Amino acid sequence: MAVFEKGVIFEGVDTADSSCWSLAAYQARGGYTALKKLIEAQTPQDEVIAEIKNSSLRGRGGAGFPTGLKWSFMPRSFPGDKYIVCNSDEGEPGTFKDRDIMWFNPHALIEGMIIAAYAMGVKRGYNYIHGEIFEVYERFETALDEARAAGLLGERILGSDFSFDLFAHHGYGAYICGEETALLESLEGKKGQPRFKPPFPASFGLYGKPTTINNTESFASVPFIIKDGASKFLEAGKPNNGGTKLFSISGHVNRPGNYEIPLGTPFATLLEMAGGMKDGKKLKAVIPGGSSAPILPGDVMMDLTMDYDAISKAGSMLGSGAVIVMNEDVCMVKALERLAYFYHEESCGQCTPCREGTGWLYRVIHRIENGLGRPDDLDLLTSVGNNMAGKTICALADAAVFPVRSFTKHFRSEFEYHIENKKCLVDHKWF
Amino acid sequence: MLTTESLAKIDREVAKYPAAQKQSAVMGALRIAQQEKSWLSTDLIEFVANYLDIPPIAAYEVATFYNMYDLKPVGKFKITVCTNLPCALGGGVAAADYLKEKLNIGFGETTADGKFTLVEGECMGACGDAPVLLVNNHSMCSFMSKEAIDAKLAELDKLGN
Ligand SMILES: Cc1cc2nc3c(=O)[nH]c(=O)nc-3n(C[C@H](O)[C@H](O)[C@H](O)COP(=O)(O)O)c2cc1C
Ligand code: FES
Q: Is A293:A317 a contact under the CB 8 Å cutoff?
């Protein structure tokens, strides 16, 4: 676990101090003053939401949807129960930022969720935490206990009329539960199978009640926006791409880890921060936003800035901010085979195009990798992909197809070589 | 079927959800049951379902859907190693190969002495710390070089006696 560059969430967090996550440490660095400010001034809900809108904060879970706008969809005057849910089910291969937020700075997330609850008139929230990080879940529960004991959660928060309580829910191994409606099903104690949309969670969410779901990093950015102002947050990034963003860098760099840097930072700068390429090898390719984002050749990446707009213009997605770096020794067929296996394993099985299609993609890529590829296999991959993307309840099918399309587009010659010569074009080494 | 300590833990899970939504606690309850008994037999799943007042099939559906539940006996130490792409680029596949060689078993198998089960895992959200492995679902070990794997296996081996 390591955070090397610090922006709005990690500002002032001494990750080397084993108690940096505690309530006392959080308060010492100005924590919970944003919440106190709102409660003391009895700030109207609309003003809080307007501030989030003005900050240009875009959802950090993958889709980059404007957070303030999402909050404004909540029917605040709805008389019954309403919920907010945090998506900490971080399972997108390459992503490991939410874990570090909860490990080193859990109260930033808790405060962000309390402010969200205040703004949307919500009394109960859940944080859904990825199965494999039990130790993080336990720490988060301890942080919740601290907040409750200090009167920051529960009935009449800080002596006001506002009440809100928050609980942690521990997942148990299913990538699909990162998809927001599968997550809601899972929270209800069911198989994590996505729901049809519409109705959207803002009208029919947890237990059928209005619900707003945001990623961990989105919620954890909120205290800064309220404390220091939307314009300060916006200035930390670039227009339409407000704030700093956590990038999780993995693969062939000297210093893998999390880097919280302004949106719009050149990729070349980020690579340099991460210590450059390991063993002085050549950069071959980068997946800039988690395994579901289309892969881009290294030289294309070297000219890009790390923000939603620039990466999407280049044909990929900033996604979760997981930057997977590959050097010249990686066989692209082998790399894609592993990703295809993952999506096949993790398809929930509900929609036929996804359940069957992910298996087809995997088997065809597997046979190419193993020297059994047929001349028309690349066309077959295209046709299977076309029958999956956009034809299912959730976007897992699309997430499985994007890598296939982009790998076979940018590195087509490697696939053709494999099919023709029954072996790798490169002398493959994983690391 | 479960100790009072486990039942108290399950009660704490139940208390997190609205009174009419006890089913929400089934994931936590199954996890707690598995922690005590090491794997989930059909009887155990049924016990958990009855404890939560939900149909056994509802609990069984959950137990079979999420891949950290074990529906068959596993070794004393279940080691899950991540081989997904980001980890592979950081030595995850090499770590898995080394584990297979040292334990002399493949994925999904248990050593003859019943001590170790080896499982291939998917992304654990820890890719920057590759190679990573998970012991008995709850204890994550980072940067598992060959030396670190040797030390970990020796430590577990001793614990298992
Ligand atoms: C297959 C799939 C997996 C997803 N996994 C995650 C995840 O692990 N974490 C996350 O925050 N969002 C994930 N999402 C996106 C969520 O559905 C949702 O858009 C997001 O949590 C909204 O939060 P945000 O607006 O703050 O980004 C996933 C989506 C899909 C289709
Ligand atoms: S790929 Fe192994 S932890 Fe993410």
A: yes
Which tokens in the block code for residue A307?
């923000």
Question: A220: distance to nearest CA of chain B, Å?
Answer: 18
Closest Cα to residue B121, out of A174, A35, A291, A381?
A174
The SS3 call for residue A167 is strand
- For the stretch A67-117, pLDDT in tens is 999 999 999 888 889 999 999 999 999 999 999 999 999 999 999 999 999
* A150 has a pLDDT exceeding 90: yes
Q: Could you tell me how far CA B14 lies from the centroid of its own chain?
A: 22
Q: Within its chain, how far is the Cα of B18 from the centroid?
A: 28
For A203-352, strand residue ranges (E) read 211-215, 244-251, 257-262, 265-266, 283-287, 296-297, 305-306, 322-327
Other CB atoms within 10 A of residue A13 CB: 21
| Residue in B64, B65, B47 with CA at minimum distance from that of residue B56 | B47
Alpha carbon distance B69, A365 (integer Å): 30
Q: Give the dihedral of Cα atoms A43, A48, A54, A55; nearest 10 deg.
A: 110
Residues in a beta bridge with A211: A83
> Does this complex have an ipTM over 0.90?
yes
Model-level pTM?
0.97
Pair of tokens at residue A276: 């450059």
Q: How far is CA A158 from the centre of its chain?
A: 32
Predicted pLDDT at A240: 80
- Alpha carbons A320 and B123: distance in angstroms, whole number: 14
Residue B135 forms contact with A (CB below 8 Å): no
Among the ranges given (A116-120, A183-187, A231-235), the one the predictor scored with the smallest mean pLDDT: A231-235
**What is the distance between the alpha carbons of residues A279 and A385, in angstroms, rounded to a whole number?**
36
d(CA A318, CA A322): 8
Nearest to A338 among B31, B85, B140 (CB): B85
- How much is the mean pLDDT over chain A? 96
Give, for B135, the enclosing helix (H) or strand (E).
strand B133-135
- Site of tokens 């996804």: A354
Cβ proximity of A256 and A274 under 8 Å = yes
CA nearest to A316, candidates A94, A136, A33, A120? A94
Q: Which residues in chain A have their CB less than 8 angstroms from residue B26's CB?
A: 189
Question: Which residue in chain B has the smallest CA separation from A347?
Answer: B65
